[in-house]
User: Fold this.
Amino acid sequence: MRFIDLEGQQAVDFLCYNAHDTRDRYNAANTMKMAENVFINAGTVLYGEYATELMRITASSSPNHNTIGGCCSVEMNFIRYGRRTHSCRANFIHELSKFEMGESDIVSNVNFFMSVPVGQDGHMAISESPSKAGDFVDVVALVDVIAVISNCPQKYNPACGYSPSPVQVETYARKQ
Assistant:
């Protein structure tokens, strides 16, 4: 798959699951341990719950994708911004229902194009994304996967430059 940030600064929340056993889902901790990095970049393998290599980032024109910030939710948006807004969590629930999964199947996800710098003291914050119009991320499945995304609708923080915009998703058949 290729994710293209058409206008720049658009976060894309992403989850993947082993299609043959959805309990084997993306595991942020396993991914960070094996990559020895809190950021997702070209070459990073996305590991599952059972140390399965689910997907690999093969190319990226924007650096340091996030996997510690999780997805926004109506509840967190209300606490942070005093407003009940659309959320990636609701989008995930909607998409996962197509595969007989639901809220309990949502785990800490990958946030492509989202910048969450981590300071020496451990301080972290969502900051403006460095992605520009046309930036892309390529991922390849290493096993059969179910992949779901949410084009983040959050307009009250810098994850989407305070103005959510479209992304393009291209899929390709695996070369035999």
The mean pLDDT is 94. Residues 2-170 form one domain. The chain is about 15% helix and 25% strand.
